[in-house]
Amino acid sequence: MQLEITTRHGEISEAAQQKIQSKTEKLLKYLDKINAILVVVDLENKDNIKLELKVSADRYDDFLAKTTGGEIFAALDLAISKVEQQIRKQKDKKIERHRKQ
Question: What pTM was computed for the model?
């Protein structure tokens, strides 16, 4: 799995990048076919940080979540939650299609 962390209008520390990596790796328990994860952190407004999380996986469309929050990790947790919901929904759809046949 490839992880890319990009920042706009500023930089984040190496420790924060490591924490982002450990949190995004938790998505592997929901979907093991993940190829790449892209995290974009926009620090233009320090009080309202914008975060985009894009997950690419084999045989699935890309999963995308955009969130805002007071700090990076609150926004990241919200984005991960949104992507988890999208993954569960897609997996349920695939299971339902196979059951109908």
Answer: 0.88
